[in-house]
Amino acid sequence: MRVVAMAMLAAVLLPVDRVGAAIDRSFEGDRHLRFEVEDRSYATESPGDAIVWPEAFTLEAWVRLTTASPYGLIAGRPMAERGQDPFYHVALAFEGPDGRTPALIASTGVAGTYRVAAASSAIDVQRWVHVAGVRDVAGTLRVYVDGVLAGTSQSVGAVSPNPGMRFSIGGGMRGDGLEHACCSGNFAVRDVKLWRRALTAGEVSSSAAGTLVDLDLVRHWPLSEGRGRTLYSALAGRAPLTAMRTRWVEEPFLSPAFRRSVGPASIPTQSVFGLWPIRIGGQTHFVVTGIATPTFPETRTVVSVLSPQSGALVDSTTARLVAPASSVHVVDAVNADFDADGREDILLVDSGTDTSPFPGGVAQLFMQQSDGRLRDETAARLPQGVRYYVSGDARDFDGDGDLDLFLCALSNPTNTLSSALLLNDGAGRFADAGLGTLPPDMESRERVCQQAHVVDADGDGDSDLIVSLRGGAVEDRPDENRDRVLLNDGRGRFSFMPVDALPPRAITPKTDMMAYATGDFDGDGDEDVAVSGSLQTYDDRVAVQIYRNIGGGRFEDASTHLFNDWPDNHYIFKLDAIDFDRDGRMDLLARGNNGYRPNPADDVRIELLLNRGDQWVPMSTRLGLDFQITGPSTFPIDADGDGDLDLAFATGVEAGYMLNERPLPAVLPRPAFALQDGRPMTLRLSAGESHERLFFDVPAGATALRVQSTSAQNVDLYVSRRPFADTPEVVAAPARGAAVAVATTPLGDEDVVVSGTNLSPGRWYVTPVNADAAIAQATLTATITQSQAVPALAAGHFYNPRRGGHGVSYEYVAGQRVLVWYTYLDDGTPIWYYAQGAAPSPNRGAWSATMRRFHWHGAGTTSRPVGTASVVEIGKGSDGADRIVFSWNLNGDAGSETMQRLGGTGCPAGFEGNNGMWFAPTLSGYGYTVTYFPNYEFMPVYLYDAKGNPRWVTGERAGFSPADATIPLFQPSGFCPWCVRPAGQSLPSQSAGALTRRFSGGRISGLGLNVSLASPVVGAWMQDRPVSLLTDPSPCVVP
After folding, report:
1. Which residues pair with 468 in a beta bridge?
2. Core-most of 318, 460, 909, 1033, by most CB within 10 Å?
3. Which contacts qualify for 964-969: CB closer than 8 Å, 24 or more apart?
């Protein structure tokens, strides 16, 4: 309840004259910015762009309530914590505790001046509503809802023009610059506008419909970017807003699918780290373990038990534990019926204190008694000894019918015990299997185990292992860190498969594999493996990989189209293979951990990746699942028995469930996907589902497009065309009736050919439709035939004039094509990707290759696939410049845009042959693309930040000088690949140091860098080395 005095809030009511016409506007199909109270999300202006607030004004927005949002700020200037006088300076907000009544709030910033014009009735949730607040020169406040006057009041003075407070949407900043704590809301917002005069009722309606054009518009944020944290103004010269902890979502996901259901706040275990399930009496209970700040000697925390009650989790420690228990750092748990009495038991894998000298811990085995209580029987059932345990698994490893244990252990100079296979005597008592069961270099600790998981690698029905190995206890050898397959002979004796049985690790050899999950991810009947990795510092790049089982104990990397846009400052602690959407294909739940990070709001704790064949669709943002709870203290479970998956969770102050209350729609919005010439793409379709954003770029000179599909179900094909686009968004395919070719036979295998006058260059859509009543899996392949010679394409820089600020360097080298894409992340910071592959065959104007993200690890680089890049050559524009269409698949989505070559008037005399990509042979992994013209120099520089992430800076200047020169470098800020590029606005950049170039005989002989990256990027890059041309020289003149 607000504590501001009622006398201060009393409105001077005027007669409510209901004028204007109701407005109906649909944003169907768009992506919207969703704000949530729990996340304290908001968007705010920078201090340097503060609005000089007009005396008479109109503030308006479209809003769609997810749930009631008491005192929630739609847009305006929050001033202080709620309860202070005044806490709003000026705002459109939801007045009062009901959280559904729109209001205009205004004050002069002085106590006693807070006034409210509230609507006479509440609005509905889950519906777009237009709200406008108007103050005229006489001080009258009016609030309009859907164009109808809904409430009035009288202000006591003008809003202070510029009190130093930031304009915010959805929550915001206090006057002292700190985060506003009170007034976030649960809603989506669109089209926020501020006018410097009081609009009439008719003008309010016109503005809401988007038809009012007036010079008195001060600010306009459409909030239609669809991605990223930068919210651009529609007015030239106005700085953008920055969104914090918001989500871009689309229908039907504007309302989060998960609802928090919690029990009492009393939990014995503080600083909860692990939530470990155990079945007791037909229900899932949880053993809860904590973690204290690591100390030596160790600090122990209480082990507690949570039990289901009335839709939540409550403390049952006293009732469920025979005796009090404690632990140090439980990193894994194994639950199984070890003594074959029909009751599930649990083993807590405790690694010990996580600080030097890392002495290790003691695993604890709790046996379930007949009354459902848990008794610690470690001493009687497990071999004695301290080990640095990190994971465990239970299977019948020796084939005798009972459940054995494999415990994976690291080591240290004082710990002489290695990983262990513990064999069960059938009654739940375990003994070390002894020497000869594991490879000698594991038993001798020459190699130690970082993580392990059971997988039937060779399909023979027994339990093999995939293990993450490090160099041994005496000396850590990161160059020997790798995953290995351990094949079981069926009697519990293991041997290594060859090193190349598994693909290389992502990021760097120093990567620690933190989690494994097994499942049939590709639908071929055998077990594949998902792995997550992080650098050993646990705060650098994270990557998830899919190891596809190809038989015989061998695996290949299948991660190209896997979402991998993880934050730097966290690692993925657990992976779960679950069929979340019940389509028969295993999905992935990644549960992260932020450790002891200073800014946990930047960390992703939970990510659900839906398996759609060759596409993995990130769903946590859509479902409201990416809430801020450390990953190990969550667990997927059907808590309410309705057949779908919920999440159990525990923190130091509460425990309960995130209940999944809205099933996924039968047909999900599908991300776009760019098909590549001749490369098959596999996808999975629900009954009646189609994929409306599969596309294929057809170049100039193509004579035939052939699309083939294979499926055991009835999958129809529709092939249609749209022109190439300048913007990257891939809209849905044309309507079925506009298809150029159709194949709707009752068979699953279709073959469509488009040729002759029916075929022209453009973006061609291949739309598969599942005509069956069951889930269908289909493989699609699109190929082009081309008999005409494609116009010769000059290599060089290509950019989109409508989206200047990013581009590609597309170069030739020895029958190959090399592409560097310099673009931006969602936060606006620069990043580059690299692709290289064979040149198109003669008379084929389409090229594609795997796109890779590089990582610097101190002395060189490693790379991992993150998608694909495609280039289609489409000839020359009206200005004579070569044109291409650049398309990409990246992090589960795709885009495409038309680009033209950066042309010139010739090479500087005597300096021909310098344009192209350059690198330093003595330290490869970074480089430059050089473009010299007589009147212009342009050089993007590809380097790395302090975390090893790829970054780029640019040097450019008018004119060209043959003398050695130092050129200033700048670090740009821009728009993500799919984000809106603000029209008519220059992109901000910051000084980042300088580049020194030297010539010898008309040829570049050396390039020196003195780079200090600008905030928020951290790092420096200092190099001065001889360089060589990596690619063929690109021409200076467009042919």
Report:
1. 451, 483
2. 1033
3. 964/996, 964/997, 964/998, 964/999, 965/996, 965/997, 966/994, 966/995, 966/996, 967/937, 967/939, 967/994, 967/995, 967/996, 967/997, 968/993, 968/994, 969/941, 969/993, 969/994, 969/995, 969/1009, 969/1011
pLDDT in tens, 271-322: 788 889 999 999 999 999 988 888 899 999 999 999 998 888 889 999 999 9
Residues 6 or more apart in contact with residue 173 via CB below 8 angstroms: 42, 44, 78, 165, 166, 179, 180
CA distance 225 to 730: 14
Three-state DSSP state, 757: helix
Coil/strand/helix, residue 712: coil
Residue 418's beta-bridge partner residues?
A: none
Amino acid at the residue 621: T
Confidence of residue 270 (pLDDT cuts 50, 70, 90): low
What is the Cα–Cα distance from 1011 to 104, expressed in whole angstroms?
49
Q: Which of 839, 694, 731, 844 is nearest to 784 (CA)?
A: 844
- The DSSP secondary-structure symbol of 601 reads G
Instruction: Please state, in angstroms and rounded to a whole number, the distance separating the CA atoms of residues 193 and 228.
Output: 20
Q: Is 207 helix (H, G, I), strand (E, B) or coil?
A: helix
- Phi, psi dihedrals of residue 955, rounded to the nearest 5°: -125, 130
Sheet holding 694-698, edge to edge: 673-674, 694-698, 762-770, 715-722, 741-743
What gap in Å lies between CA 75 and CA 168, rounded to an integer?
6
In tens, the pLDDT along 928-974 reads 998 888 778 889 999 999 988 899 999 988 877 788 889 999 999 98
**Omega of the bond leading into 264 within 30 degrees of 0 (cis):** no
Q: What is the pLDDT of residue 692?
A: 92
- SS3 label, residue 839: coil
In degrees rounded to 5, what are phi and psi of residue 474?
-70, -40
Q: What is the DSSP letter of 500?
A: G
Q: Give the ranges where 37-184 is alpha helix by DSSP (H).
A: none
